[in-house]
Amino acid sequence: MAGRFPQRPTRTTVRGGHAAVPAGAAGGIPRQASAPARVRRWVPDGPLDLGLTLGPLRRGPADPTFRATADGSVWRACRTPAGPGTLRVRAYGGEVLGEAWGPGAEWLLEQLPELLGAADEPEAFVPRHRIVALARHRRPGLRLTRTGLVLESLIPSVLEQKVTTDEAYRAWRRLVRRFGEPAPGPAGVGERAMWVMPAARTWALIPSWEWHRAGVDDKRASTILRAVRVAARLEQGVGMPAVEARARLEVVPGVGPWTSAEVVQRSHGAADAVTVGDLHLPGIVGWALAGDRDADDAEMLRLLEPYAGQRHRAARLILLSGTVPGRRAPKMRRVDIGLL
């Protein structure tokens, strides 16, 4: 079964998916010196924390498709159904400004509200434990993102199967930069240029030695190759309920419950898609809710029963609470696949 091995949080990340985004200026959205290709302004109906909402889309601090900058902006380089696009999002005084470039710009701006949690229903969540209630109180801007894109979450999730996050992030960076394309607009130039991930056909044509150089074993590479061959069918899953989309994903050999949950949490904003098969999550949930650091998946699901329909949100809040059991075993050893 697939599993994810989180590293210790750095200064720019915390458990639960968060990107450090400085607060925007209080005086409103500034006028632009040069107009971007597309612009959209949107007012959310409640508190919105860009770092919490979009943080799960970042695959490591050096993700070439995601960046949070000192001016309070979050940048995303995406491969949309209309083509590659770059999105810049900023929040000021309750208003959001979205700027987009490239063939996918119009699609990105159309999806902007759902990306920022407009389809989410945080008010439907009722905390049943003090630790969850406190985490929710401290993170009022948490919304569950809905990207409307399957492959961009599926491929990095497969890369994260059974390896450390460091190894998975390194593989994602290398493959995107080598086989992707520069992001449209200003984000695609300079020393820290952003990149759009490869198209499905490009993933399918990556030679075996390039997977090896990226540290990706044959099993994970084969899963990705099988997935991109049916990419169109998988992307159609965004129009289905999350449960049906997961079933379609799991038809692909190598994609199990862990991976499908990780995908629909992002593509669908699935509030109930709790991750099972994870190395650490059951112990964290067990410790937070029952003082049981040895909880397994079955016990985790039992403890989350009061949050039926909202189990993923409950798990995220538990992770964001910072209440985790101390480490009793050494970190997972990194394995050189060339020695296997």
Account of the 3D structure:
This is DNA-3-methyladenine glycosylase II. Keywords: DNA damage, DNA repair. Its EC number is 3.2.2.21. This protein has 340 residues and is of the alpha+beta class. It has a single domain, classed as Orthogonal Bundle (Endonuclease III, domain 1). The protein is built from 15 helices and nine strands. It has helices at 50-54, 105-110, 112-115, 130-138, 151-159, 165-179, 200-204, 208-213, 218-229, 231-235, 242-249, 257-267, 281-290, 297-303, 311-321; strands at 4-5, 38-42, 66-68, 74-80, 83-92, 95-101, 163-164, 181-182, 195-196. The strands form three sheets. The chain has a five-stranded antiparallel beta sheet. It has a two-stranded parallel ribbon with strand order 1-7. A two-stranded antiparallel ribbon has the order 8-9.
Largest beta-sheet characterization: 5 strands, antiparallel
Beta fraction: 5-15%
Give unreliable regions as ranges.
1-14, 25-35
* CATH class category: Mainly Alpha
| Mean residue pLDDT | 89
Which structural class best describes the helix and strand composition?
alpha+beta
- β-strand number: 9
The radius of gyration over CA amounts to 19 Å
Task: Kindly report how far apart the N and C termini lie.
Answer: 20 Å
- Number of separate structural domains: 1
Helicity, in percent? Answer: 25-40%
The H-and-E topology, N to C, reads as EEHEEEEHHHHEHEEHHHHHHHHH
At the fourth level of CATH, the homologous superfamily is Hypothetical protein, domain 2
Number of helices: 15
Outline the fold blueprint.
Blueprint: E1 4-5, E2 38-42, H1 50-54, E3 66-68, E4 74-80, E5 83-92, E6 95-101, H2 105-110, H3 112-115, H4 130-138, H5 151-159, E7 163-164, H6 165-179, E8 181-182, E9 195-196, H7 200-204, H8 208-213, H9 218-229, H10 231-235, H11 242-249, H12 257-267, H13 281-290, H14 297-303, H15 311-321
Parallel strand pairs: 1-7
Antiparallel strand pairs: 2-6, 3-4, 4-5, 5-6, 8-9
Helix pairs in contact: 4-15, 5-9, 5-12, 11-12, 13-14
